[in-house]
Design goal:
Elements: H1 2-17, E1 19-24, E2 43-47, E3 53-57, E4 63-69, E5 72-79, E6 83-84, E7 88-94, E8 102-108, E9 121-126, E10 128-132, E11 137-138, H2 150-154, H3 157-177, H4 181-193, H5 195-207, H6 211-232
Parallel strand pairs: 1-10
Antiparallel strand pairs: 1-4, 2-3, 2-5, 5-7, 6-11, 7-8, 8-9
Length: 233
């Protein structure tokens, strides 16, 4: 009997000291006017020390319940198909007054920051904490197709290159006509001495080459050379 009584006392003590956390999603228009419209796959995950993790599906009253939480520091994340929810830091600590009930506190936390960096306070309770969490933004999986924008069209690299080329084509004659005669003469000399002038001259000679005459001259010179050899014999 004594053993049974001691076990009962220990069980009652552990249940009395266990902390409970209830997180509800209220109506938050215009982003989420009706929390009942959340997908059934919406669930919350409470991650504690290594190896400690709790999951709670969303209930009909739009709440998540985590019973019997041990003394530790937890990270609460709500996973939804259509909305983003801010992560919360939940601390379960011993009560300051020395009672059996534990103190449960919650703050907003920020990913990529130090764990000690706490955001807005979400409430505190002895033995149990009931708090609310609202969505921060809505997930958008589709991007609206934009219409024709003349500014974006002109900013295109191909269009800019075409505009610059057109400006050179129509602007160079005007610049050459208004150029100083001495400067124009120097510019012409530079063009003649440039590497492109030699290649253009070679191309012109190749185009004006008379291949028929060259073949005819080669044939006559060959026959003449053969006749000279016959005479010598």
């Amino acid at each position: 009997m004594l053993v049974l009584k001691s076990l009962t006392v220990l069980a009652g003590t552990s249940l009395a000291s266990a902390a409970n956390l209830t997180v509800s999603i209220p109506s938050s228009p215009p982003l989420l006017p009706n929390p009942a419209s959340l997908a059934p796959s919406t669930h919350a995950v409470l991650i504690g020390p290594p190896g400690v993790q709790y999951e709670a599906p969303i209930r009909r009253d739009n709440t998540f319940t985590f019973p019997d939480l041990a003394e530790a520091s937890y990270l609460l994340t709500v996973h939804s198909r259509d909305y983003f929810f801010p992560p919360l830091r939940v601390d379960v600590t011993k009560a300051a007054d020395g009672t059996q009930q534990e103190t449960v506190q919650a703050w907003q936390t920020f990913r990529g920051n130090e764990w000690s960096n706490k955001g807005p306070f979400y409430g505190s309770g002895n033995g149990e904490l009931r708090t609310q969490i609202q969505p921060s933004s809505q997930k958008n999986f589709y991007q609206d197709r934009g219409g024709f924008n003349i500014i974006d069209f002109v900013k295109s690299p191909m269009i800019l290159m075409a505009l610059v080329s057109v400006a050179f084509i129509f602007g160079m004659p005007y610049i050459m006509d208004n150029m100083d005669p001495e400067m124009k003469e120097e510019f012409d000399d530079m063009q003649k001495k440039g590497p492109l002038s030699g290649s253009s001259g070679a191309a012109a000679q190749l185009q004006n080459f008379d291949i028929a005459g060259w073949l005819a001259g080669k044939g006559s010179s060959t026959e003449q050379g053969a006749g000279d050899i016959g005479k010598k014999r």
